[in-house]
């Protein structure tokens, strides 16, 4: 009989990528409005952001708060440099705030656990399995555990 089961949290028990996608879309819209027709293609902007995000991931790790927002800001700075436009501190701040939205627990309001998660975890508990949660990240992950009431398992 299986005695212990280890679960990942993000995108296993509930969706998180959608919040990163929404922040990315918002940052693209913002940069498109800011740079206007000088902006390279959105595909180019996305590839730059992914490049910086991967660079920061290697340097700081996956679950570090600030990595995602820093990659968005760095993308803005790089495009500004390429277009020979000076960096606007207000724009940096706005983009940083957009990039931090996936880490705001309020973005999960109205969201439930993925279908079948509660029933599965209840069943495993009834079978006497010890359930353990494994996730990358810093203290903001505890907010998700509380928000989704995962302590009950």
Describe the structure.
The model has no long low-confidence stretch (mean pLDDT 93). α1 runs antiparallel to α4, α2 packs across α3 (67-82) and α3 (67-82) packs antiparallel against α4 (89-100). The chain has a two-stranded parallel ribbon with strand order 1-2. The chain has 153 residues and is mostly helical. The protein is built from six helices and two strands, in the order βαααααβα. The two termini are 19 Å apart.
Q: How many DSSP-defined strands?
A: 2
Distance between the termini: 19 Å
Listing every helix as H and every strand as E from the N terminus to the C terminus, the arrangement reads EHHHHHEH
Structural class: mainly alpha
Overall mean confidence score, pLDDT: 93
Total of DSSP H or I helical runs spanning 4+ residues = 6
Shape: elongated
- Considering DSSP H and I runs of 4 or more, what fraction of the residues is helical? 40-55%
Strand order of the largest sheet: 1-2
What composes the largest sheet? Answer: 2 strands, parallel
Low-confidence stretches: none
Q: Radius of gyration, Cα only, in angstroms?
A: 19 Å
Quick gist of this model?
The chain has 153 residues and is mainly α. It has six helices and two strands. It has a two-stranded parallel sheet with strand order 1-2.
Layout of helices and strands:
Blueprint: E1 4-8, H1 17-35, H2 42-60, H3 67-82, H4 89-100, H5 117-126, E2 130-134, H6 140-147
Parallel strand pairs: 1-2
